[in-house]
What we know:
By secondary structure, the chain is mainly β.
Amino acid sequence: MNALHRDLKRLVSRVEQADGPAVAADLARQRFHLMPPVGWMNDPNGLCRFGEDYHVFYQYGPFDPNGGVKHWGHYRSRDLIHWEQLPVMLYPDQTFDLHGVYSGSAYIEDGTMYLYYTGNVKHPGDYDYVVTGRGHNTCLAVSRDGVTVESKQCLMENRDYPENLTCHVRDPKVWKQDGVYYMVQGARTKDDVGEVLIFASDDKLHWRVINVITTPMPFGYMWECPDLFELDGQWFLAVSPQGLAQDGLKYQNVYACGYFPLYGDFRGDCTLGEFQEFDHGFDFYAPQSFEDGARRIQLGWMGMPDADYGNPTAAHGWQHCMTVPCILTARDGKLLRYPVPELETLRGAGETFTAAPGLEKRAQTFDLCWQAPGAFSLTIRDSLKLSWADGVLTMMLEEGGAGRTVRRAAVETVDALRVLADRSSVEVFVNGGETVLSTRFYPADGCDTLRFHQGTGAAVLYPMCEK
Ligand code: FRU
């Protein structure tokens, strides 16, 4: 442990003790979503099951609710529902990760946790930090107990990446297949084209680039947080591309987030199919998935970098949260996202009713399941209006949107609607997860009305208990 590590550790613990109570008292504090103890949260990192425990690491800026230098915060759980806050796992405490322990993944082998991440270094000087001035190091931290790190090292630096790239190469995700270790990283070329690098290694330490995957025509200038996996015999490449212009109902957010079906072999000849967005709401970015037995579970960051809307929680010392954990399944070359069944253990006694125009219910944090036939419309806590008509699902925010206005998604028919509302977020799952919309929202304190304006059908409303 070096002196910087020691001092950062003390400082994080002091700021968590000093500011934690105010954050915990904030009425917008989430009841069943992971959020930072204080300060800032972005991408989920190092998602894994290690022994009996699930681990969620995350981009954590403990000193600044608007960002700051990134650490890896840490939560652990036996059941994906009750999470224990653990001390920060990775501090920016080495010359190769001094200005941010950026995103990455966990690879588990022989009872050891290998954490691959990007060490961000910004050299002092008059640099643009895109083409010059930034070190983007591929780093490895090793832990045997899943709580403490016993070594950290830099495996690759700028000169180890292809020459046509800028200083934006990051977010390693590692797995093993056919006896070989593979890693994907997102990249931005000097011509401002987003792509994914495929690396291979025989020993987890020495890596070589074996392939570069991108679209025939440029699709944004940078691809962040890649995730490559096979599900039911179909390969998928998930990325968060930056620089896509809005195209009708596609790419309404400043940055996009979705996946390509990948045909062929990612190690050689392969092509990408049509890009699909994971989410159509305001707040979903940089998701990561991991395997848990037969399931592939994904968590996303319920936030959006550089958006023109905000989160008033920053004034209360914290910002952002994760989505609930969802299971990914493949159907006809597309991915469905649906909450893990474990979440249902947080449901209180359900109230069954038939929805009808004019009906009102009361709930702040809830799980609403509605077999909604045809056109419908409902308002949540006088802030968020959700409706479907003529093939378009609309999420509209006015009061409490903190700058969020409207998002629309093409949805042919709505058979089943599930709405998960926490204190300051709403996640909408249409037709078992075919279409999902996630957003933060900030209704007036105490407002708990759920108004049905249009549509009928059987519904069950479960209050959600605190995790
Ligand atoms: C995505 C991202 C990653 C990076 C991290 C830094 O939100 O920009 O590409 O590693 O956040 O916090």
